[in-house]
Write a structure and sequence with these properties.
165 residues; six-stranded mixed beta sheet; four-stranded parallel beta sheet; alpha/beta; 28% strand
């Protein structure tokens, strides 16, 4: 759920902690081993399940990483952005949007996608490359575009039809 709050309301993280998270971001971007990339994101405070694969240069929120949960068997490909806060209203209204981001079991996030605050990506969902996800994604759904819209459902338990010869 998203909420609009005054800028930096409840922001109790020290400057040292923010500096530390930014220093951890660099090895998390470029580490050649996926387990170590996941380790560095966990070190920042992101809740990450088992067998999660995070690609190169994935930006996971440094300001509020504790609001991001990535469940088991999720794949986040290269150059994606996952944020739990949005400062687009800061300069005009002095507000920010904060929301918990949840990526459920078995989801796949395509290259260069952005996941905005307050979004839940359902189990087994697929986010197409270059998408901006602003609303929740249902389980076993393929979404794509800016903003991301439903392309179609899929059913992983159903086998593909075989052609008759």
């Amino acid at each position: 759920m998203k909420q609009v709050v005054d800028y930096a309301q409840g922001m109790t993280v020290s400057k040292f902690t923010r500096f530390w998270r930014n220093c951890i971001q660099v090895p998390a971007w470029f580490m050649p081993w996926k387990r170590l990339r996941t380790f560095f994101h966990r070190l920042k405070g992101v809740h990450i399940g088992r067998k999660v694969e995070i690609g190169y240069m994935v930006l996971i929120d440094n300001r509020r990483p504790e609001l991001i949960t990535i469940e088991d068997y999720v794949t986040i490909t290269t150059m994606c952005v996952v944020i739990a806060h949005d400062l687009s209203r800061h300069f005009n209204e002095g507000k920010e949007i904060i929301g918990e981001v949840r990526i459920k079991r078995g989801a796949f996030i395509g290259m260069n996608s952005s996941i905005m605050p307050g979004v839940t990506i359902g189990e087994g969902a697929v986010v197409a490359a270059g998408s901006v996800v602003t609303h929740d994604v249902e389980p076993y759904t393929i979404v794509g575009g800016v903003p991301a819209k439903k392309i179609r459902d899929y059913h992983p338990a159903r086998s593909a039809p075989t052609p008759d010869r």
